[in-house]
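Consider the tokenized backbone below.
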């Protein structure tokens, strides 16, 4: 059990260290390639697009080749690409390599939870999934911080090599410790059956609302964290790349808020918890318009805590809403979630380029208002159904 926990923490760390490695480097990449913020933002969004496109097909392939083998192939290919990416001669080649790396990394979320569900009992699985998500959070945070400080001292190419080294440590932990699967039974690939299952999920209006909420929350969150790299290094703040990268330690707030999801849902209900998350993000966005650094950091705390709470509520609700094939229902959530990350990264950077931070905030608020509208629609439908049920009695 301890070996499985440590191994999944390691591969979670490696995955997210690589996936968002270029995010704190965007200002430096824009200067190095004499390019616009929205153009260099594709080095982040390209990776999340690759992951979003590949996660569902790879989840099906893992049914045939095995979860452990799928994860091993994915992390090794991603590491090989991580060693090539720092030597990319131009922005186009860098972006193309990042798309391929994101597609390789899709093997991990496509297989990790399925591996745990097959190898552990339900009680042990809860803790193991928690450590996998903790590895994601720590990897995303530490990779960004390491990249920021290394780029300040040695440049962006050395920063990406440093992140590759950090990811290699996490991957080695996984390769050495994860036991061979004992309960996996290969099943033949049935693409037609899989497409039928996907179509079934897409006809489920509750699932569609949850997918939309997850996508919209991630769109706003990704827009903020892509554009804030530029805002922190420009006037009036003028932070160095290392100090700006350290701001990502705020991700730990998300770890805390997501761990409180169960208590919040118990007290307020699922939709109530979503309103709290959306409200916190909205308050943070408004506060972030301040020119005071302390208030901006407080705004990022609110945005991060609110986002992770909302994401945890929506993703957990997917498993309950799916009447069958829950793994594929979760995979579809992952597709829409990272689709939102891709759209938010590019459009957040574009609005920053066109209308500065105020433009990014306005774009994120539109996404949040839409998410709130979807949640309100669900609330009104629920109240209407309750009134009809009461009237029928």
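A designed sequence for it:
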């Amino acid at each position: 059990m301890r070996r499985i926990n440590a191994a999944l923490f390691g591969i979670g760390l490696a995955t997210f260290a690589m996936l968002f490695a270029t995010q704190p480097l965007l200002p430096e990449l824009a200067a190095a390639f004499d390019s616009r913020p929205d153009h260099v933002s594709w080095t982040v969004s390209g990776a999340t697009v690759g992951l979003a496109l590949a996660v569902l097909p790879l989840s099906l392939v893992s049914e045939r080749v095995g979860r452990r083998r799928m994860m091993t192939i994915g992390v090794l290919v991603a590491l090989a690409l991580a060693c090539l990416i720092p030597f990319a001669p131009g922005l186009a080649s860098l972006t193309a390599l990042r798309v391929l790396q994101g597609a390789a990394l899709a093997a991990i979320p496509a297989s990790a939870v399925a591996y745990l569900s097959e190898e552990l009992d339900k009680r042990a699985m809860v803790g193991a999934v928690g450590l996998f998500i903790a590895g994601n959070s720590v990897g995303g945070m530490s990779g960004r911080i390491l990249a920021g400080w290394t780029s300040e001292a040695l440049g962006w190419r050395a920063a990406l090599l440093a992140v590759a080294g950090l990811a290699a440590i996490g991957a080695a932990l996984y390769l050495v410790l994860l036991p061979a699967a004992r309960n996996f039974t290969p099943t033949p690939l049935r693409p037609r059956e899989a497409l039928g299952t996907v179509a079934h999920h897409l006809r489920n209006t509750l699932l569609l609302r949850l997918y939309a909420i997850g996508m919209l929350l991630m769109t706003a969150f990704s827009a903020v964290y892509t554009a804030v790299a530029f805002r922190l290094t420009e006037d009036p703040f003028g932070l160095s790349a290392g100090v700006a990268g350290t701001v990502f330690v705020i991700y730990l707030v998300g770890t805390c808020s997501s761990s409180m999801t169960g208590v919040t849902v118990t007290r307020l209900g699922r939709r109530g918890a979503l309103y709290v998350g959306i409200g916190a993000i909205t308050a943070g966005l408004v506060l972030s318009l301040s020119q005071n650094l302390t208030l901006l950091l407080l705004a990022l705390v609110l945005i991060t805590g609110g986002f992770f709470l909302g994401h945890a509520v929506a993703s957990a609700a997917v498993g309950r809403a799916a009447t069958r094939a829950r793994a594929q229902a979760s995979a579809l959530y992952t597709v829409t979630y990272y689709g939102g990350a891709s759209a938010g990264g590019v459009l957040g950077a574009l609005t920053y380029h066109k209308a500065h931070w105020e433009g990014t905030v306005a774009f994120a608020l539109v996404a949040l208002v839409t998410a709130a509208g979807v949640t309100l629609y669900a609330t009104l439908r629920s109240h209407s159904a309750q009134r009809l049920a009461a009237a029928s009695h």
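The mean pLDDT is 86.
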